[in-house]
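Lab notes, practical 5.
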Amino acid sequence: MRYNTYYESTAFGIGGSLTRSIKFLIIGCTASFIVGKLFELSGSTFWLDAFGLTPVLVRKYLLLWQLGTYMFVHGNIWHLIFNMFVLWMFGGELERVWGSREFLVFFFITGVCVGLLYFIFASGLPLIVSAGSPYQVLIGSSGAIFGLLAAYGLMFPERTVLFMLLFPMKAKWFVLLIAAIEFYMSWSPSGVSHFAHLSGLLIGYLYLKKEWNLTRLADYYHDRKRRKRVRLVALENEIERQEKDEIDRILDKINAQGMKSLSRNELKILERASEKRKNK
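Output from the prediction step:
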C-alpha cells in the first residue's frame, strides 16, 4: 500500500466520528463477546475453543479459521472496551484517508499475519523465539490494532497524541515508546501476548514501507499471465511460420519432381495443413 506522510498538522487529532469500518468492527467484536459470555454462563467453553487461536487445535484439527476469528474474541469487558477505544482513537483517521475497503484489508491482513506468526512461534518447536505454549489460546484484536498504531506513526509522525491520556508527545515517539514498553514487558511472564503486539507493529510497518496490498499482488499475477499469453502467441506464430516454410518447400518439390517424390512424412505434413485449412 502506498502511503503519504502528513506533516502539516501537529494539533490533537484523535478519533472523531465513527467511520463505517470502525462501526463494523466494534459491532462484530461486541456481538462475539456477548455470545461468548452466554456460552460461558452456561458452563461451556465452546466459543473460546472454536474461535480463539489455539495452536495445537489448529495443527491437530485444521481449524484454520482461528487465524482470523481470534480477533473478535475478548476475555472480559475491559479487554473489549480498551481495544475498541484504541481502535476508534487511531483507526478512524486512517480509514478516512485510505477508504473503508483498504482500511479493512490492512486490518485483517495484519491480524491474520499476527495469528500466523503466533501459531508458528507457539507451536512448541525448538525456535529461537517462543510466543507461548501450543495450548495457550490467543484472543483479542490488539495485534491488528498495534498494526494500526504503526501505520498512524508513519502517516502522522508530527501529530500530537496523549500518552496514557495525560502526556502529550508526537505520534512517532509515542509509537516507538509503546514498542519499547512492549519489548521490555515481553521478558516478564503475564497473561498478555506481547509477542502479538510486537508482531502487529512489525507487520503494520512492513505493510506500508514495502507497499504490500492485494491490488498490487493481483496486478503482478495478471501481468505474469499476460506475459505468458504473449509468449504463447509468439511461439504459435513462429510454429506457423516454420510450417508455412515447410509446406512451400514441399509444394516446390511437387512442381519440380511430382507427387511420387514425396516422403511419407511430407505427405503427413500436407494432410495436416489441409485439415487445418478446412477447420478454419
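Observations recorded by the TA: The mean pLDDT is 85. The chain is about 65% helix and 5% strand.
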